[in-house]
Design goal:
By secondary structure, the protein is of the alpha+beta class. The protein has 35 helices and 17 strands. A 5-stranded antiparallel sheet has the order 6-7-5-9-8. A 5-stranded parallel sheet has the order 11-12-13-10-14, sandwiched between helices. It has a 4-stranded antiparallel sheet with strand order 2-3-1-4, with helices on both faces.
């Protein structure tokens, strides 16, 4: 071995000399190396003494050097005095237990060192302790008692620490744990001159060895460093690299060997940590395999989002339907009442104060009688009196729900007929069982959404879908664009609004399913409990399947109310909403998960439901206006009239439409007389008709009527309450049944007319609002308006007849080329031409007659055929 070492030293000497300056002689280089090696420790001491002039703090933490009295003190390094490993993440250090342990006092650390190093000689006390928090260790300086060699003291301390570790691992569980994660402190003798620094050089398993003087061989380095732990590799050279298996061994070797002088002062070693260049394999894989990695990452992110957020969103949807955590559910709770009692008292006091001030001001203005009449609390009773006419219909809806047979109900009625109040307040909320599980969707809010994000927000608010991140749509679009530029294909991260809404409704379906089956597990447990208690001879009770249980307990299923369901949306980009809701609701009914009720004023919207459930017969309720007697009683009560004859003959044009009755009441309360209020309301209705229907200002893209058609319907409805569909199609303007039905449906959607069907076939046509009938009459009897639109109507008929004549003449010309073979056909065409020509002459005569009249005609020409 000595021969090998000697040969290694010779080789290393040659290598070291080859790297020195060539102009220096070999003898000068050797002498300089020996001299510098011997004086390394003394040079540091001299520099320290020179810099300590007029300094008061000369501790190791300040100077980085531990002063040792030779032969009287020894320095030992204890590793893992601080039990946790070091992290380069400052925030991680701040939020771990390490941040608490590092605040241990020096006395506590000394007690810990003495506990694992004992027993030691009596006078071998600790003279100094320098903690290395970054390395989880500490330098401990012991006083060597007289008569004891330094080496003996070191051996005794090391033996005590090893024995303490054996005693600690005597427990089998601790022994197994130590094999995996040994955190018991170890002690080493400090052989060099430690440099206590707090630079940003964090520990690593790689140590760089700088040689001052002769370079050590690989074998010499192994002998020097092996005592601190398993070495993976040694890279010799002018600056050698030592690679340890564990970081703990590297830390101990660096702190114990740095500054050591070997070969009689020929070599001095300086050690540093080599920062590890960590390779992020995930980032590397993504950069090198983008077409594979990006879809995988997107799938993982989507899966993680589903696993985390979908249960939260489902919980919020269930809470919105059941209202389990809403304030209204606990309003009648005695504890809640007691807690809110002071608040109610203060609110009542403020309300009564405002009422007192209003009464005083009203009395000064001479309106005391009006102020007294506004707070007698009779309005709710009057409104209830109006709904009493619809009691049977409300009862019918409840009966359908409790029958629980394909509960798919449609509540139809014109705008302003109070469909929402009828269904919610007077049908569902009045029933204790049915009022507990209601999901209300207002389609009008969804259809009027201006942007995709606004549509998603509104849908989430309607469903109770929370949390929702609309900002991710914009981000995903940019990401998708970038991925497409890099990989040539879309990532699929950005979803269309249709897909996002379908996902939201799909999660809502799952929430509805959980609500509907929430009581089934209790029912099953109850039956099983009863069967377990049966006596001998008794037959066990049958447990119903989930489908059968829901069929027998309709109150378990939520009620979905879809309000303002229409054929088309106000914004064309949102037209997909209504078919999607129809399909979603039909799936709920088919799977027996919920009762679905649609509220609509658009008869054409039923087509979406027919497409979703082609083989289903819908249960339908049609709401009409209030009766004349109820409307009169409502006005009397609202206006506080003592004499009903004061409004006799005035309210009849209003009919029973609640919106018009309320507008009439507001006008009279504002100071107008009944006649003036009615006149102004009729004028407004007439202006609305001429603006949007007669002047053909398009309300939407699907406006498919012409002025002559609207004028025809107005004249017919001004003379009767309703017109027969069979009579209307006799007019040349309504010959095509398909186009006529589409035109009438559009006019009904915009509330100009109301259609009634008999056994699914269109039967009668009436005014959309009762007030429109009076507006029709006013427009018909206005000479200027009548003259303008009647002439336009007659000119339209003339154009139709002329077109008919042109077609007949073309056919007649083509037949004449065949000779006299089709003489009967020629005669037939000639007669048709003569008849059309006679109509044209008659129509033109009527046009001239209307244009010649200067004053409003009495008994003016109103014929249309």
């Amino acid at each position: 071995m000595s021969v090998v070492l000697r040969s290694g030293l010779q080789t290393s000497t040659v290598l070291a000399r080859s790297y020195l300056l060539p102009q220096l002689g070999a003898q000068l280089r050797t002498q300089w190396g020996r001299l510098s090696a011997r004086r390394y420790a003394s040079d540091i001491a001299e520099i320290k003494q020179e810099t300590e002039h007029n300094e008061t703090d000369t501790s190791a933490e300040t100077t980085g050097v531990i002063d040792v009295e030779e032969h009287r003190e020894v320095v030992m390094y204890f590793d893992h005095i601080y039990p946790l490993s070091i992290s380069r993440n400052v925030m991680k250090q701040a939020f771990t237990a390490y941040s608490m342990i590092q605040h241990q006092t020096p006395e506590q650390l000394k007690e810990k060192v003495l506990a694992i190093a004992s027993p030691i000689p009596e006078k071998a006390n600790i003279t100094d302790l320098v903690p290395l928090k970054r390395d989880c260790g500490a330098f401990v300086k012991f006083h060597v008692p007289p008569g004891i060699a330094s080496s003996d003291l070191i051996k005794q301390i090391q033996a005590n620490v090893q024995q303490h570790e054996k005693d600690y691992n005597s427990n089998i569980f601790r022994q197994v744990l130590s094999l995996v994660w040994n955190q018991h402190p170890a002690v080493y003798s400090v052989k060099g001159t430690p440099w206590i620094e707090d630079l940003r050089r964090y520990p690593s398993t790689h140590l760089k060895v700088k040689f001052e003087g002769e370079v050590l061989t690989e074998e010499e380095l192994y002998v020097l460093f092996r005592r601190y732990g398993v070495i993976v590799d040694i890279l010799p050279g002018p600056e050698a690299t030592i690679i340890f298996k564990s970081m703990r061994a590297a830390i101990s070797a660096k702190n114990c060997i740095t500054g050591i002088s070997l070969n009689k002062g020929k070599s001095t070693l300086h050690l540093q940590y080599i920062p590890l260049k960590r390779v992020n394999y995930l980032t590397d894989f993504i950069n090198n395999h983008q077409k594979i990695a990006i879809p995988i990452l997107i799938a993982l992110v989507a899966t993680l989002a589903v696993l985390i957020f979908d249960p939260i969103r489902q919980w919020f949807i269930e809470s919105k339907i059941t209202k389990k955590y809403s304030f209204d559910a606990y309003r009648n709770n005695p504890v809640v009442k007691l807690a809110l009692y002071p608040f109610h008292q203060v609110r009542n006091w403020l309300s009564s104060s405002y009422d007192y001030l209003d009464e005083q001001i009203s009395s000064l203005n001479g309106d005391a009688e009006k102020s007294q009449s506004t707070d007698n609390g009779t309005a709710p009773q009057n409104i209830a009196m109006l709904w009493s006419e619809r009691y049977e219909k409300s009862k019918q809806i409840k009966l359908w729900i409790y029958e629980n047979i394909n509960t798919f109900i449609i509540v139809k009625g014109p705008k302003g007929s109070g469909k929402e109040e009828f269904l919610l307040e007077h049908t569902l909320l009045n029933d204790e069982k049915l009022s507990k599980k209601i999901l209300y969707l207002d389609c009008d809010i969804l259809s009027k959404s201006r942007s995709d994000n606004n549509l998603i927000d509104n849908t989430a608010q309607q469903l109770g879908y929370f949390p929702v991140f609309t900002w991710t749509n914009t981000v995903s679009q940019f990401v998708d664009l970038g991925v497409q530029g890099l990989t040539g294909q879309k990532s699929g991260l950005s979803e269309s609004k249709e897909t996002q809404l379908k996902n939201m409704f799909s999660l809502t379906t799952q929430a509805i399913r959980d609500i509907a089956t929430a009581d089934y597990s209790k029912y099953r447990s109850s039956i099983e409990r009863k069967n377990s208690r049966l006596r001998p001879g008794e037959s066990p009770l049958e447990i119903l399947k989930e489908e059968e249980y829901l069929q027998q307990h309709p109150e378990c299923k939520p009620i979905i109310v879809v309000d303002k369901f229409a054929r088309k949306a106000d914004a064309s980009q949102n037209d997909f909403i209504f078919p999607m809701i129809a399909e979603w609701s039909s799936a709920l009914v088919q799977n027996n998960l919920a009762h679905v009720i649609f509220i609509t004023a658009d008869v054409g919207s039923v087509q979406h439901l027919n497409n979703a459930l082609p083989n289903q017969v819908f249960k339908s309720i049609s709401l009409s206006d209030a009766s004349s007697s109820s409307a009169q009683q409502y006005l009397v009560e609202q206006l506080k009239l003592n004499d009903e004859h004061s409004i006799a003959g005035v309210y009849e044009p209003l009919g029973g439409r609640m919106l018009d009755l309320q507008a009439f009441v507001r006008r009279i309360k504002s100071g107008e007389s009944p006649q003036e209020a009615l006149h102004e309301m009729v004028n407004q209705a007439a202006e609305q008709i001429t603006t949007f229907f007669l002047n053909n200002h398009k309300l939407e893209e699907d406006t498919n009527w012409n002025t002559a058609q609207v004028w025809t319907i107005m004249k017919l409805l001004s003379k009767s309450e309703s017109i027969e569909y069979s009579e209307l199609i006799k007019s040349p303007l309504f010959k095509s049944s398909a186009e006529t039905n589409a035109t009438l449906s559009t006019l009904e959607k915009h509330d100009l007319i109301s259609l009634k069907a008999d056994k699914g076939i269109l039967d009668k046509i009436s005014a959309g609002r009762p007030l429109f009938k009076a507006a029709f009459k006013q427009l018909i009897h206005d000479h200027k308006i009548y003259k303008l639109y009647e002439v336009d109507y007659l000119n339209t008929l003339v154009a139709l007849e002329n077109d008919k004549i042109k077609k007949l003449e073309q056919e007649l010309i083509s037949i004449q080329k065949l000779g006299d073979k089709l003489g009967s056909r020629v005669l037939y065409l000639s007669e048709k031409i003569e008849a059309s020509n006679a109509k044209v002459v008659e129509l033109e005569t009527n046009i001239a007659e209307i244009n010649s009249k200067q004053k409003e005609p009495k008994g003016a020409f109103l014929g249309i055929f």
